[in-house]
Specification:
About 9% of the residues have low confidence. The two termini are 29 Å apart. This protein has 273 residues and is mainly beta. Strand 4 and strand 5 form a beta hairpin. It has a 6-stranded antiparallel beta barrel with strand order 11-12-13-16-15-14. Strands 4-5-6-9-8-7 form a 6-stranded antiparallel beta barrel. It is globular. The chain has 2 domains: 141 residues, Trypsin-like serine proteases (Thrombin, subunit H, Beta Barrel), CATH 2.40.10.10; 100 residues, Trypsin-like serine proteases (Thrombin, subunit H), CATH 2.40.10. The chain contains 2 helices and 16 strands. Keywords: Disulfide bond, Hydrolase, Protease, Serine protease, Signal, Zymogen. One of its GO terms (biological process) is proteolysis. GO terms for molecular function: serine-type endopeptidase activity.
């Protein structure tokens, strides 16, 4: 799915906001995204699973993540779109364990694929973002919710803690989880991430870096999924998982790179018609 690299407001910096306690009845859901754990059920209700039917047999498999941004649209990474044949895709909202029916799932076929016009197929050129129009609206319930956006052009300070979520590999070359994973992951500001020894010129200002500690990262299968950050009193999707290092998902000074959602607000709203 990814070769060179994997996978994966008011203007200016926002102030750091204390994260709410994610414990549920003092119980932590353990397990393992790389370096993570089983997500809290119904916590990340905008998380989507993009699935592909490789042989057109009606048997779909998870390939990427996504975020529900309206009752009819899901945002994902452009590199997750393997071809433009709509019948090969479906999106599932409200899922937690991909291999169990739990009653909250809402599968939808895709009626339109909208690629960003600046997407060239080269991850380091940026614009790795796409919208999927669903065949029918998704309804909100205790399992599904529309994501909040950041402010236009909003950026995050260095070290700000966000959460990456997805069903990607638990380690490079490892296994994929049944249950949605979550992991706290610190933002790496652009001036650091674009410096020599980090991602250098591969990172643009329309991207967000997070991680790079050699412990926590996105990996194959997490692409397209959200970077969830608690800002301005709400969880907001600040990023779309785009890429990471090809040799190992969690390399020190090579953080996971996300498409920065706040850079694409005008385009997103112009396409959701």
């Amino acid at each position: 799915m990814i070769h060179l690299v994997v996978l994966l407001s008011c203007l200016g910096l926002i102030q750091a906001t204390a994260l709410p306690d994610l414990t549920v009845s003092n119980e932590r859901y353990t397990g393992k995204v790389v370096g993570g754990s089983n997500a809290h059920p119904s916590m990340w209700r905008w998380q989507a699973s993009l699935q592909y039917d490789n042989w057109n047999t009606g048997s779909f498999a998870h390939i990427c993540g996504g975020s529900l941004i309206s009752s009819l649209y899901v945002m994902t990474a452009a590199h997750c779109i393997l071809d433009m044949q709509l019948r090969f895709y479906r999106v599932v909202l409200g899922d937690y364990d991909l291999y169990k029916y739990e009653g909250g799932e809402q599968p939808r076929s895709v009626s339109r694929i909208i690629m960003h016009p600046g997407w060239t197929g080269d991850l380091v050129n940026g614009n790795d973002i796409a919208l999927l129009k669903l065949s029918s609206p998704v309804y909100g319930n205790s399992y599904t919710e529309i994501a909040n956006f950041p402010y236009p052009d909003q950026t995050l300070p260095n070290g700000f803690t966000c959460y990456i979520t997805g069903w990607g590999l638990l380690a490079t070359g490892g296994t994929t989880p049944d249950i949605l994973q979550e992991a706290p992951i610190p933002v790496v500001e652009h001036s650091v991430c674009a410096s020599p020894g980090w991602w250098s010129t591969a990172v643009k200002k329309t991207m967000v870096c997070a991680g790079g500690d050699g412990k926590t990262s996105g990996c194959q299968g997490d692409s397209g999924g959200p970077l969830n950050c608690y800002t301005d009193g709400a969880w907001r999707v600040h990023g779309v998982v785009s890429f990471g290092p090809a040799s190992n998902c969690n390399i020190y000074t090579k953080p996971t790179v996300f498409t920065r959602v706040s850079s694409f607000m005008d385009w997103i709203y112009s396409e959701m018609v």
